[in-house]
Amino acid sequence: MVKRTVRLTTGANYGLRDWLGQRVTAVVMAVFILCLAGGLLVAPPQGYAGWKAVFANQWMRIAAFLFLVSLFWHAWIGVRNILMDYVHATGVRLTLQILVILSLLFYIVWSAEILWRA
Amino acid sequence: MEPGKSLKLPKNRPKYLNLLRIKQPAPAMVSLLHRLTGALLFFPGIPAFLCGLEMALSSPEKYARLQAILTSPLAKVGLLLSLWFFVHHFCAGIRFVALDLHYGIELEQARLTSKVVLVAGVIITVLIGVLIW
């Protein structure tokens, strides 16, 4: 049997992955936000100690971190789409995209620091 | 269309190339606002949110300062506006995922759900606003 190799000749081929990634991260964030909102409605944290206690739970930290990473991933796909649509000068677009990536990587480190330092 | 046959269109059709003069239908407004609110939630949204989270969790003094900042009338207006950006983006996002799953893709339904999203965004924002004021 002859093995057929399919060669993709058009497109960058990351479209479907990004489209799906944006929706999966959206669902992850929506579930987290609705759970968190429900929890805060049932037992609103009182003052600094209350909020501190909420984030002292290791599972809460992990869930919040996964939420934030989903947010940054989601934001990257969205912002990249906006830049591709409206910024046509390649040099400017590339510079902005690099700035967005660097800021999002910085936010990941910052989030981990906020959640685990205390 | 059959070849050789031309579609007869009136010559004096209005040509509005000015976006401000084109009246957008509700689904277009939802889409446009989804993009606009998404951009604003990215910046200044994300850094502002992380700043707030850091202040709320780092020390009682910073928590008190955050509380003082957020209770000023100007900050409350800004917070409410940010909240609307978020709620609209959230509701419109649910609608787009539903459309991707082929729910509500008929024109009438799509128009109706886009109006529901626009109204729900405002109502939910007001409800949360009243709750946290």
Characteristic terms for this protein:
heterodimer, A: 118 residues, mainly alpha, 4 helices, 81% helix, elongated, B: 133 residues, 74% helix
Question: How would you describe the overall organization of this protein?
Answer:
The complex is a heterodimer of chains A (118) and B (133). Chain A is mainly α and 118 residues long. Chain A has helices at 15-42, 47-56, 58-86, 90-117. In chain A, helix 3 (58-86) runs antiparallel to helix 4. Chain A is elongated. Chain A starts with 14 loop residues before the first helix and ends with a helix. The mean pLDDT of chain A is 92. With 133 residues, chain B is mostly helical. Chain B has four helices and no strands. Chain B has helices at residues 26-58, 60-70, 73-100, 107-132. In chain B, helix 1 runs antiparallel to helix 2, helix 1 (26-58) packs parallel to helix 4 and helix 3 (73-100) runs antiparallel to helix 4. The longest helix of chain B has 33 residues, at 26-58. Chain B is elongated, with a radius of gyration of 21 Å. The A-B interface holds A 23, 26-27, 30, 33, 47-48, 51-52, 55, 71-72, 75, 78-79, 82, 100, 103, 107, 110-111, 114-115, 117-118 and B 35, 38-39, 41-42, 46-47, 50, 53-54, 56-60, 63-64, 90, 93-94, 97, 100.
Overall spatial form of chain B: elongated
The DSSP helix count of chain B reads 4
Largest sheet features of chain A: none
Based on CA atoms alone, the radius of gyration of chain A comes out at: 20 Å
What is the alpha-carbon Rg of chain B in Å? 21 Å
User: Low-confidence parts of chain B, pLDDT < 50 over ≥5 residues?
Assistant: none
Oligomer: heterodimer
Describe the secondary structure blueprint for this structure.
The complex is a heterodimer of chains A (118) and B (133).
Chain A: H1 15-42, H2 47-56, H3 58-86, H4 90-117
Helix pairs in contact in A: 1-3, 3-4
Chain B: H1 26-58, H2 60-70, H3 73-100, H4 107-132
